[in-house]
Fold this protein.
Amino acid sequence: MGAFENLDPTAEAHWLTWCDWAEEQGLARPNDAAFTEARARVWEASDFVAVTVARHPEVFADLIASGALERPHDAVALTHALDSALREVSDEAGLQQALRQFRRREMIRIIWRDVAGRADLVATLEHLTTLADLCIQRALERLHAWTCAEFGTPRDETGRALRMVVLGMGKLGARELNLSSDIDLIYAYASKGETDGGPRPLSNEQFFLKLGQRLSQALGAQTVDGFVFRVDTRLRPFGESGPLAMSFNALEDYYQTQAREWERYAMIKARVIAADPRDAAHIMALLRPFVYRRYLDFGAIESLRDLKRMIAKELYRRGMDANIKLGPGGIREIEFIGQAFQLIRGGHEPDLQIRPIRSVLALLGRKQLMPVAAVRGLDDAYCFLRLVENRLQAYRDKQTHLLPDDEPGRRRLARSMGFADWPSFEVVLQSHRGHVQSQFDAVFAEPDTETVAESQELVSLWHSNLGGDGDAAVEASEELVALERAGFAQPAAVQEQLLRFRQSIERKGLSRRGHERLDRLMPQVLAVVAASEQPDLVLGRVLKVLEAVARRTSYLAMLGEQPEILSQLARLASMSPWFTERVCRQPLLLDEMIDSRRLYAPLRRADLEAELDALLLRIDTDDLEQQMERLRHFVQGNMLRVAAADLTEVIPLMIVSDYLTEIAEVSVRRVLELAFAHLERRHGRPTEILGEQTGFLVLGYGKLGGIELGYGSDLDLVFVHGTESPTAMTDGEKGISNEQFYSRLGQRIIHMMTTQTPAGVLYDVDMRLRPDGSRGLLVRSFKAFAAYQAEDAWTWEHQALIRARPVAGDPRMVEAFAALRREIICRDRDPVELAAEVREMRGKMRENLDKSGQGRFDLKQGRGGIADIEFMVQYAVLRWASAYPALADWTDNIRLLETLGRLALLPGQAAEELTATYKALRVAYHRSALQEQPKTVADSALQLERERVQALWHDLMGEPPP
């Protein structure tokens, strides 16, 4: 027997008992080497298997004969086997016996395959979970029918027959059930009502209470045949003192108003085990907002840190440091790490809303939320510790997590894990636990307050009276000295700011926890702000943010837990009020400041698409409100990253516009997809269209079309559809005309983009550049659009067409528009007449829009400004495109100027000079936007450049600028 020469005599006696029985039955005793070694391993590791086989030899004989010991787990086969075992069951006693006998057979098989190395950890946990699911489901089916026969059928107010919902929690919910685990269950039902068809009406609450009791008894009661699974229902609302089964409304009220923080942690793994499919979807949708906040919730770290302290204190009190689940570096710490990230980020990043801890860890690595090596170490530790847990519990089929302290027990565990002895096993075990504990300590470490500690004066300052009663004169003077010493230029004004802030906070009525978090945070705020280059300016802006988020104490926790966010906020606030104004309106933007690598690295198109996919993942296709909210978070967050990179000069101006334009394009395309899909579900797809997909086109004009969006730019859009027949209809059951479909599509797009939600608007949209302006149809057919451009459009509309391009829609429509645009732009035009019309339009625009005056120059509309350059470029394109079609290739001014220069169509170095001036004006325009200032500069600014633009206008257009 090699390594298994010195086996426990008692275990061997059990084996000989089975051998004697087999001989009496005329069965051959397996004696091949593989079986012999596996049998020896299992009998040493599991007294439960040895004893059970001796007592029920026929079960083991059947497992050998059927080949089940060597056959991998198969859920379908397991289902058929259980259904067969329950086929003759007609009462609760028979159900209990059949379930226990089935469980006994499967546990022998599972432990054999686990210990003998026939199944890995994943297969073992899945086999156990499937076994529990099936036992719960099949038991509930029969008990429900028997309870209905006795008391009648429970129904809701509409008469729908109801079934009980069983939620699996913990390891069962995550499909990670171990060998001798309790199963944590919560029972619920859809709504109040009563039974019918029984001897007398019974309330649904009474019916499901009885059914829950019967299910718990059927699974958990200890009988002569043992138990199926120990059932623990204490995770239900109000614990042991709460009702065993609750209605959905009662559950929702509890979780919204009374649930404790640890219950959020527990609910991460909740999974519906048995239910009507409609009720299953309903209850998970009900629970999701309780578990996953819309914002990053760093308050979860605080709560989990407190929970871990409580566990550690209890373990110490009970002398249970050897507990591999709850002890230092144990399984629970790994779960806490993963679930902390889930609680913090799960509402914001729906792909984290998953149950299995190993999948969570893998995602943390892929998202770079933890170092890949750390994640790999945690995963290895988890697998090792779960194997140890299984081997501990396999011995006596007992729920234990304590390492043995006796020599035989240690030797047995070490050998079952593949080690020669306890010391070699213990080295590996402690290595894994050490890694887990170090990672746990890193994630749950108290925030670094070293900066604050270095300035106790500022700590004392926040906790002082701030010029209040008592020894006011002395204290106020000391405060002013402390503020001046810290670097504030106007300490009296700063003191007054802090006092007003404190009074404002008091009026908001913060909770006790909110006050505690603010008191811990404010000394950090003062220290960080004092270290900035403009502390007086920065403090005012940062206090505005704190005032805006104070009622949402999770944001105070975030700033306290993540000092990096506070540092980034102070840094960017010193550069631009744009940041603080937006964060005040949308505190969710604080989330973007967690990772400086991400904050200063805006995303390009492919990554933007991927991020938006993740944000919209798991949102119901008809949940328009959530779709709109997520789209707004997407745009605002990515715009913030662009601005951060712009201000810190990580990216140049022209790239800023590229980034902002791509964000808008990705958003418009997704809005079109969502809006089209919604109408398609209702009415089917349009038929007889020009196009292969939607037959719809969204054209971007102006800055969007010219790839020149700024931070405050609205979107100039035009909608075109490809219906080729006026009588064409959609192909759905509730078909409507194509014209109606596309009109509703346009309206829904506008609604999704411009409706004010808690997160604001997606973009302001201007549709006035469509044919016939605001009086025209919202959506035109391509045929009508082409006819209008060819026959009725004004010159200014052809100017606008130069900067028009498809930003979303059907590829064939894109091709058709490109051909039409080129045809219109490349028409032969009279240059004198064209110049007169362009000058006239420019004059009207300046008259209505130019805000120059009182020593200020309007960067866009002033003489020699951005619009003058744009009009010159548009005139040049329309004048020469018939002879030089390359002028129709681009929509942006920079590349059009490059083309004009390359073709020598402008005099001398005019193209290069206009390009340089255009860039300089755009830089000033962007900076004004970020400073929340009017888009003007002093008259003395950029004077030479503006004079050169005016001179070039005179040379090109024949007259001075109007």
Notes: The CA atoms of residues 480 and 492 lie 6 Å apart. The mean pLDDT is 90.
